[in-house]
Design a protein that fits this description.
- It is a single chain.
- With 362 residues, this protein is α/β, with parallel strands linked by helices.
- It contains twelve helices and eleven strands.
- Strands 1, 2, 3, 4, 7, 8, 9, 10 and 11 form a nine-stranded parallel beta sheet that branches.
- Helix 8 runs antiparallel to helix 9.
- It is globular, with a radius of gyration of 20 Å.
- The chain starts with a strand and ends in a 6-residue tail after the last helix.
C-alpha cells in the first residue's frame, strides 16, 4: 500500500492564513520524515468558512520545497476554471521546481459555487476535463511548437518555454466514482479513487471493474486507487476516541451548503441530502447527511480512529472491501490541537505504515 497526507486546508478561526500555512508545512515535513508517500490538497474557492486553498500549484511548490522525498501534488486542479495553455505551462514549471516530485490531479469540479464568479457554466465541466488530458499530452509531445484543435480548446503553434521533468508528464489522477469517468481513466492510464461520501461496499465493484478495464487496455503498471477519510491515531483506542471521534464528526461541516438567513443546521443537512438524492446517489446522500453523528461514524467505520494496531486493522479490512491500495489520510480536522495532530502523524508513519506497507489488496 501507499499512503498520502490529504488536506482540504480547512480554515481555522484561531489562525491567520499565514499561520495555517506554516502549520501545514510542519505537517508535510513530519510526513516526509516518517514515510508517507504523497501529500495532496484540494482546489476550493470562495468559502473562507471551509478551505483556504485555491491554488494547488502554490501548495505543491511550497510543499516540495520543504520536503526531501514526499511527492506533493494537486487533487486536483478544477480544469474548467483554468485556461488550458496556462495550466499546461504551470504544471510543467511546478514539476521542474519540485525536481520531478509533482503528482497532477485533474477534476471537473463538484460545487456550482466555484463556477458562477468566474462566469463559467457549471453544466459543461466534464468534457473540458477529459479533453485536457489529450491537450496536456499534445503540449508535452515531441512536435513543437504544438497545435491542438478540440471541442473545447484550440491552440495554434504554441511553444512552451519549459517542459515537465517527468516524461511524458507527471502522474495523472482523477478522483471519481462516476462509471463514465472511471472508464476514461482506465483507458488513459490515470490513477483514481474516492472520498468518504461513497460507501466502500458500493465502491468495491466499481473499482474492480476499473481494474479489469485497466488491465484490458494493457497498461504496464498497476493503478493507484485511493480512498480518503479522516484518520486519527493515538497511544490507545480510548485516548484516540476521546480526542478524535467528536472532532471527526465535525470535520466536514464546511462541505455543507452555506446557511441562508433563518436556516438551521438540520435545514443545511436536508439540502445536502437532496443534492445527492437528485443525482441518484442514495448511498452518498445517507453518508453525507449522517457524517455529523459520532455514533454513525463509529458504527460504520467511516473514519479510522484508534491505536496504531486498531487503525492498521481497520484500513486493511476497508481496503479489501472498498478495493483501494492508496490511503489518503485527512489528519488535520476541526479544532484538533497541533500537539495531537503531530503525534497522530508520527504514530501513523512509525507504526501503521510499516504494518500495511506490504499489504496488496489487488
Amino acid at each position: 500500500m501507499k499512503f498520502a497526507h490529504f488536506s482540504h486546508v480547512w480554515g481555522k478561526p484561531d489562525m491567520t492564513a499565514h499561520e495555517r500555512y506554516e502549520q501545514l508545512w510542519r505537517e508535510l515535513q513530519l510526513c516526509d520524515d516518517v514515510g508517507f508517500d504523497y501529500s495532496f490538497c484540494v482546489e476550493h474557492h470562495f468559502r473562507p468558512d471551509e478551505s483556504w486553498m485555491s491554488s494547488p500549484a502554490l501548495f505543491a511548490v511550497a510543499g516540495n520545497a520543504r520536503t526531501k522525498r514526499l511527492r506533493v501534488g494537486a487533487m486536483g486542479f478544477v480544469v474548467p476554471l483554468h485556461h488550458p495553455l496556462r495550466l499546461a505551462e504551470e504544471i510543467a514549471i511546478v514539476d521542474q521546481m519540485s525536481g520531478g516530485r509533482f503528482e497532477c490531479g485533474l477534476v471537473p469540479g463538484i460545487s456550482p459555487g466555484y463556477f458562477t464568479p468566474f462566469g463559467i457554466d457549471y453544466k459543461f465541466r466534464k468534457s473540458p476535463t477529459f479533453e485536457f488530458v489529450n491537450y496536456l499530452r499534445t503540449a508535452y509531445g515531441e512536435k513543437q511548437p504544438f497545435s491542438f484543435k478540440g471541442e473545447n480548446f484550440s491552440t495554434d503553434s504554441a511553444l512552451l518555454a519549459v517542459q515537465p521533468l517527468q516524461r511524458p508528464h507527471p502522474p495523472l489522477w482523477m478522483m471519481s466514482r462516476d462509471p463514465e469517468t472511471l472508464e476514461f481513466c482506465a483507458a488513459n492510464g490515470i490513477n483514481t479513487g474516492y472520498f468518504i461520501s461513497v460507501s466502500r461496499a458500493e465502491a468495491g465493484p466499481r473499482f474492480r471493474k476499473f481494474l479489469d478495464d485497466w488491465n484490458r487496455h494493457g497498461h504496464k503498471r498497476k493503478p493507484n486507487i485511493a480512498y480518503s477519510t479522516v484518520v486519527y491515531v493515538d497511544e490507545t483506542d480510548e485516548k484516540a476516541m476521546e480526542r478524535g471521534l467528536e472532532r471527526a464528526s465535525r470535520a466536514y461541516v464546511g462541505l455543507l451548503p452555506l446557511a441562508e438567513p433563518g436556516e438551521t443546521f438540520q435545514d443545511r443537512l436536508a439540502k445536502q441530502r437532496k443534492r445527492f438524492e437528485d443525482r441518484g446517489e442514495h448511498g452518498a446522500a445517507k453518508i453525507m447527511s449522517s457524517m455529523f453523528d459520532p455514533a454513525y461514524m463509529r458504527e460504520n467505520e467511516l473514519v479510522f480512529i484508534g491505536s496504531p494496531k486498531t487503525v492498521a486493522e481497520k484500513i486493511r479490512k476497508a481496503s479489501e472491501i472498498g478495493f483501494f491500495n492508496t490511503m489518503m489520510c485527512e489528519m488535520n480536522f476541526a479544532d484538533l490541537p497541533e500537539e495531537d495532530l503531530m503525534r497522530s502523524i508520527r504514530l501513523f508513519g512509525e507504526q501503521v505504515i510499516p504494518a500495511l506497507r506490504d499489504h496488496e489488496p489487488f
